[in-house]
């Protein structure tokens, strides 16, 4: 028994619909998504803190950053002479005080958890 079939089979879809589906697929994979206008960052802002990070993690990172700044300014201060050394030591004192405050807040957060 011989069955008559077209060779190749006739497309059952409309070429216009096929083109629209192709365009949607290509746009999805190849075009970058534009940020929402509500989430637009202010011009010149390079860094951002991600939403949803817990307070303890933020304070721990703050404390580590202050410790790093303390080490850098301490190393610099002891290589300087005169009034520049006094300025560097003043910055060092501010960093140390800020670190102490951050550590106290971190201790308070740990005891409340």
TrEMBL record:
Pro residues bias spans: 1-10
Region of interest: Disordered: 1-20
A Pfam family matched in the record: DUF6124
Protein name as annotated: DUF3077 domain-containing protein
Organism of origin: Pseudomonas ogarae (strain DSM 112162 / CECT 30235 / F113)
């Amino acid at each position: 028994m011989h069955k008559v079939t077209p060779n190749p089979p006739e497309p059952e879809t409309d070429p216009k619909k096929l083109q629209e589906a192709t365009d949607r697929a290509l746009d999805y994979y190849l075009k970058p998504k534009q940020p929402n206008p509500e989430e637009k960052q202010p011009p010149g802002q390079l860094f951002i803190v991600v939403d949803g990070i817990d307070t303890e993690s933020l304070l721990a990172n703050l404390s580590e950053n202050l410790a790093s700044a303390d080490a850098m300014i301490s190393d610099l201060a002891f290589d300087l002479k005169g009034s520049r050394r006094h300025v560097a030591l003043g910055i060092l004192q501010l960093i140390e005080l800020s670190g102490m405050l951050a550590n106290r807040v971190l201790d308070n957060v740990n005891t409340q958890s």
